Every structure is written in structure tokens, then in C-alpha cells.
User: What shape does this take?
Amino acid sequence: MNDPGYALKVTRVGGKYDIHHVDTGDGFPVLLIHGLAGDHKAWLPQLPVLAQRYRVIATDNRGAGRSTQIDEPVSTADMARDFLELMDEAGIDKFHIVGRSLGGLIGQHIALLAPDRVQSLVMLAAAGKVDPIGHRVLMNMREVLQWTGSWEDHARHSVQNFVSPKFFNQNPDRIAAIEKLIGGETRLKACYFRQSHAALTHDTLDRLAQIKNPVCIMAGRLDPICGPLATQWMIDRLPQAEVAWFEESSHFFLMEEPERFMQVLTRWLDRHTPH
Assistant: This one.
């Protein structure tokens, strides 16, 4: 079902993938790319604010939400090409990218494939390559779903990887809501497995220095998935990057520190948008 106030549009890319997306607001375009879990609804807290000043495109990635789901190999570069074609069809030449987790990985490839089209690249809890602990965590989450076949079990075994211990202990109702959201997933499990593999095998470390666009990196200091080591690997290769650490937060720092996150993001977009 569409979200109230956000009718989903659909664009066919690659000849066979229907990409569902929100297209709202006016102004300079901002492409929002969600992570491995969920769909465009991951951006619902930010959409009303951003749409006041920007034309915001918030997508369901291939294999997620209402977009086409096919059990077939997929890479982060494949999904980057999906979004370049989507922006072509939307008549958008240049745009900001804001990608969280897997979305940040996809964003790297968009910047590598079409640097002249990227106004800036914002990566949230992302990595040029996951480090050993991030690899283990992603594998563990995938294996639970493979072994049990249950989104509910997957959610129960995953949620503690997304938030800090303090947030987990102090917000039982919100933890229950996250578990319910992930546990109520309806996508093909095979698509999750394929995209998890795409995240696990993503490696742009030897190419990140080719990205000359303005880059903003935001990271949770307590994130086990795309944590401090993986973040530092990106920082070392992107000397132009501005970095914001969320010292007490984890992978979902957008949820744990929403006011500071929006402050950092909106200031970045304002500074790097043509006026």
C-alpha cells in the first residue's frame, strides 16, 4: 500500500525492472537510496523536511519493496545503473545522492560511472568494503534467514546489530517496532540473499580515490556492520570528504540521533546546492 501523501511512481529500467519510487517536492534533485533492509519507507522521517526545499526521489531498490523481485545475481554496480536510468527517465541530469548502508555502496558506483551527474555524495553507515566483523555480522544475519526461513527470527537475531546497547536497553517499544517492521517483510527471501551477497562482495577501495565529487561521510562509532575501521578505509581514500561521527550510536544513527543527523544533512545539502 502507498504511504499517505506519497503516491508511488513506477519506471522500467534495464528492460525488465519496474522501480517504484516517491517523487516529491521542487528544487534541486536529491536521490535517496535505502539499505539492505526495508524500502523507500526508511526515509519517511526525512521526506517532509527535504521536500520543502528539494525534489526528492526515494526509491524501492530492485528486489525490495514493490520494485521487481527476481532471484538472479545482482551487484551494487547493477543497481547503480538502475538509478542512472531512473534519473534519465525522470529528466534529471545532476543530483545529490544520499545513500544509507547498501545505498551508500550503490552511490559510490553512481559517482564512478557518471561523476559529472553527481552534485555530491552523502554516505550514511556505508563502506568501500566491509571489514571482517562487518562481514561476519552480515553473514550471520543472512544465515539465520536461510536456516529458519522466518523473517521474524531474522529480525529478532538482527536488531541488536542496528542500534547501540544504550538505545536497545532504554527503548524497548522502539526495538519491538523495528523487529515488527523487519519481521513483517514480504519480499522474496532470495532477493535479500542476493543483495546481501552484493554488499559482502562490494569492494571499491582501489577506485574510491577516483571520486572527486564533494563527499560527506556519516558513521556510527558503535556500528558493527560498517564500523570505524571500514569507515576509516574510505576516509583514507577520499581526502575531500567531510566526516561526521555519531559517537554513541550504531548503524541506525539516523534513528538514535535524528536531530543531529538532519542538521548535518541539511547543512551539507544547502552548502553544496547551486543557488
Remarks:
- The radius of gyration is 17 Å.
- Strands lie at 9-13, 17-24, 28-33, 54-59, 95-100, 118-124, 215-220, 242-246.
- The first helix runs from residue 47 to 50.
- The longest strand covers residues 17-24.
